[in-house]
Design brief:
The protein is mainly alpha-helical. Helices cover about 65% and strands about 10% of the residues. It is built from 16 helices and six strands. It has a three-stranded antiparallel sheet. The chain has a three-stranded antiparallel sheet with strand order 3-4-5, with helices on one face. The relative contact order is 0.10.
């Protein structure tokens, strides 16, 4: 029997299709950086709303409607004291504000912890929200990335990977429920070894990104910042987006990532003409590196892309 093709509508409307895609948490970072709470490797509901750029109430409603499904991906309630102990070990800035512990996890991420504690969500749960939220642009991009993954992988590879991870997680759950520590430790280690398979891939991508950044800096000096940035976003658009608005969607993705990562809101700046003209000279290094990162995350050869810039096409890229 031939498996029916996965579509965006099926991901949004059908749990069985979401279950098939739930192991592909790697797509989250392809769309946008997801900041996880150190040690806990989880996020709060507020952090999820920030990631998907929707109102907090939208995340609350989505969770209420799909609680059992989302809980199955990994949701825990941590006491105030538990969170405080973990976070204070991270040497982060803290303060008490309106009776809550405010923890500055990064320049742009603040965690607010009430005395009742917090409900925390795993990365799989974050991905589940991305398959359920209809009106979030970020969620739509996440679904597009999932469809790309399934389009370029075989049914055999998908089934094997999903079944293997699912079985390992079931083993952990059964061991935890039994209360047998001697059974829980090996089960946890097996799952960790499974996840470590992807660690080397991530390290290799980071090394590649470092090399690509050097190439980008050199090409920016040679041809200018705007041609290099334009070349990257055009390639990113043609690779990751479809339809007549693919270039606009690609630029939107870049500007959102810049806003999220560096708190630089290009679209909010006043001015006429192109948004690229509103980028300040001293910001281009970061902007180009983010564009390069989006390309590397989607297996686009950055070096080849910028090396195709020449005297003939330079005018169209300025």
């Amino acid at each position: 029997m031939v498996e029916s093709k996965i579509t965006e509508e099926k991901l949004v409307n059908t749990k069985s299709y979401r279950d098939k895609a739930i192991s592909r948490v790697d797509v989250l970072d392809k769309v946008k950086d997801l900041f996880l709470i150190p040690e806990l490797e989880a996020v709060s509901m507020r952090m999820i709303s920030d990631y998907y750029e929707v109102e907090f109430k939208a995340i609350e409603k989505c969770y209420q409607r799909n609680k059992n499904e989302i809980d199955s991906d990994g949701v825990v309630h941590k006491k105030y004291s538990e969170l405080e102990n973990v976070l204070l070990r991270q040497n982060v800035s803290t303060k008490i504000c309106h009776g809550k512990l405010e923890v500055q996890l990064s320049d742009i991420v603040t965690l607010s912890i009430p005395h009742t504690g917090l409900k925390l969500f795993s990365k799989r749960a974050v991905l589940r929200f991305g398959m359920l939220l209809r009106d979030s642009k970020i969620a739509k991009e996440v679904r597009t990335q999932l469809l790309n993954v399934f389009e370029h992988s075989t049914n055999e590879q998908k089934t094997k990977e999903i079944d293997e991870e699912k079985q390992l997680l079931i083993d952990i759950s059964l061991a935890y429920a039994s209360g047998d520590v001697n059974r829980l430790l090996p089960a946890t280690m097996k799952y960790q070894n499974y996840r470590n398979r992807y660690t080397k891939q991530i390290e290799d991508k980071n090394k590649k990104l470092e090399t690509e950044n050097k190439v980008l800096a050199q090409k920016a000096l040679e041809w200018g910042n705007k041609p290099v940035l334009n070349a990257l976003i055009r390639k990113y658009a043609c690779t990751c987006f479809k339809g007549k608005y693919k270039f606009a969607d690609a630029w939107d993705a870049l500007y959102r990532q810049i806003k999220y990562k560096y708190s630089i809101d290009i679209k909010a700046r006043k001015g006429n003409g192109r948004l690229i003209d509103r980028i300040k000279d001293d910001e281009f290094v970061n902007v180009i590196q983010v564009a390069g990162g989006l390309c590397v995350a989607n297996n686009i050869d950055v070096g080849k892309t910028v090396n195709e810039i020449n005297e003939e096409n330079i005018k169209s890229l300025k």
